[in-house]
Structures are given as structure tokens and as C-alpha cells.
Design a protein that fits this description.
The complex is a heterodimer of chains A (195) and B (198). Chain A is an all-alpha fold and 195 residues long. Helix content of chain A is 70%, strand content 0%. Chain A is globular. The chains are: A mainly alpha (195), B mainly alpha (198).
Chain lengths: 195, 198
Amino acid sequence: MDINPLVIFMAAIFTSNILLTNFLGMCSYLSVSKEIESSAGLGMAVFFVLTLTSAINYIVYHYILVPMDLIYLQYIIFIIVIAAFVQLTELIIERFSPVLYYTLGIFLPLITVNCAILGVSLFMIIRQYSFIQAVLYGAGSGIGWLLAILALAGIRNRLKEKYLPQGMNNAAISLIITGIMALAFIGFSGVAIIQ
Amino acid sequence: MNKKEIFINGALNDNAIWRQILGICSALAVTNLMLNSLVMGLGVIFTLALSSFTISIIRDYTPRRVRMMVQTLIIASYVIMVDIFLKAYYPDMSRALGPYVGLIITNCIIMGRAEAFAQKNNPFNSLIDGVAAGAGYTLVLLLIALVRELMGFGSIFGLQILGDWWVSWSIMVMAPSAFFVLGLLIWFINYRYYKKPA
């Protein structure tokens, strides 16, 4: 697979956005998108963790699991790497920037169970990316996720005082807005007809 | 609570998707075909039931601080079983579902049931609760897939239902329609809940 890593990077942000076309990381996307500031904080944290775990998981997979013939353990190993990395990030941020730690505090441990993180690691293995491609794919997906949650938070902020039909508040309206956003993002690639 | 109440509660009243908005990712991703949804649902029922059961058995011996880690490892082990089973007997299905089988690990429903139910109840009740939550999840998946496959391909479970006159809506097979269909479904169910006198 010799796709230009920059193409993968741009595609991960727009046309094949991890959230809008692969549906990953929906839970925290729906529940944390009420305020722009907390959305931005969570999005930045996801971007950071995604970029670095995709690099670590790539190395672990290709230099430990494949030579030792332990590929079937990939799920367990990946999730341990992610959990350990999130914990480490938490310690480092707490130590060096307590202010950032308190703004992000609650959201950081949540990232472990954000399926976008595990999803990116699994996708990069299935698509047989090289190291550079994998890292740029991780970074692009992180930016794409940040972009999507910021857009939703902005729209939901505007919707606060608006009248909505009964039962449509929160989840239902967020999903429909996300659908419209997904339409727009897919529009970047032109609409393909699936036979 | 008796067994029947646990089941009804887990599958309908407390349905993970429309009441708690958990586990949405896979509900959206695999629902362009009924068959994919059914296989995914069965995988989730298997993982959910057995991991609730296991977590409940060892709940008195797990230190509180590391229980999340223990739960994740138990869930991951069952998911590996599902994955290996699919790869061995249904390689086509395994390819169609792609990474989403592995992503059952991070499906919040499983962790949610473990925390909310299996930590406090006996193993057998936890098993029932797991099956119930899984069945409720499968029900929603099949509902979404019914709409999407019928409109996107004119078929149900691969059987052509609508004739030649039907022009397939390719949008129904693509990502945005999954959001629309689930959003409308949640709206409809909430609306029915609100209309009923409390």
C-alpha cells in the first residue's frame, strides 16, 4: 500500500472521518458535546492519545506480536497499551500542568473506552499501513474527531433556547445533526453510487 | 426482582441504546445489512452474558481499584473467542464486519452492565441481565437494518423483496442515513414514552 501519507492524513480528517463515516467514539461525542470548552479539551486529549497510541501499537504489533506469532492477542495487547498510555498521560499532565489536568481531569480516563482509539489501531493493521502512514492516520483521525465534536457543540449551543418537538431533545436531535454533518463531509469526495 | 422482570427491564425498559444512549458505534456501523446486524447482535449477546456472569462470580475477590482493568481483560478474552470463531467458520462475515468485532471490547454497554448489575447481583441473575441487554441491543440493530437494507437494496436478509421497479436509495447504505434512522427511532420511542401518563 503506497498511498501518500499526506493523502491518508487529509482523508482521515475529511472524507473518511473516523466519527462521521466509521461511527467510532460516538458515546463521548454525544454526551460531552454540550459545551464548546469541554468538547475542545476532550478533542485535544483524544488527538494526543490517538497519535501516540497508533505509533506505539504499530511498533508493538510489528516488532513483538508478529515475530512471536501472537497476533490473536492483539485486542488484549492494544487495550492494555491504550489503558496504560492514558494513565501515563494523566500522571504527566497532573505533574507538569495541574491547570490543564483539572480542565481535562474527568475526561481523561474516559478516553480508554473511546472506541475511536482502539478502532484506529485495528484499521491501520487491516489496511497494512506503514509506520509513517499509521501515525499520520492516527493524527488525522484525531483532528477529524476534534472537528466533528466542535461542530456539534457549536450547533447544540445555538439550539439551547430553540423550540424542539417533544422527545427530540439531546440524543435524537444530535444524531440528526450528525447525519447532516456526515452528508456534508462525504460531499468532499463526491457521492459514489454503491451497486 | 424475579427473572422475568430482570429480562424485560434489561431488554426494553432500560434498553441500552434508546434509554441510555450507549453502544451506538456498532449499532450504526454494521446496520446496512440485516445479516451483519444479526451476527453482530449474537456476538454481543455472547460476550455480554458470559462476561457479566464471570465478573459476577469473581466480584468478591476483585480489588476495587483494579476492577476496570479486570473487567476489560475478561471482556477482551470473550471477544477474542467470538473473533476466532467467526474467522474459522464464517470468514466472509468476519471480513464484512472488519474491526467492529474487536470493537465489542470498547462497547460501553458491556462495561455499563458490569458496573451497574454484575457487581451487585448473583452470577445467574447477571447472566440473564446480560442476555436481556444483548437482546435489546440486537432488536434495535435489526430495526435499523430493516429500514436501511429494504430501502438501500430492496431486500431483507439478502432476499429481494421489492421488485425491479424499486430504485435503490444508495444514501441508505452510506453513513449519514444510519444517523438519521437511529435519530428518528430514538425520537419516536421518546415521544411514545412522554405521551404515556406517568
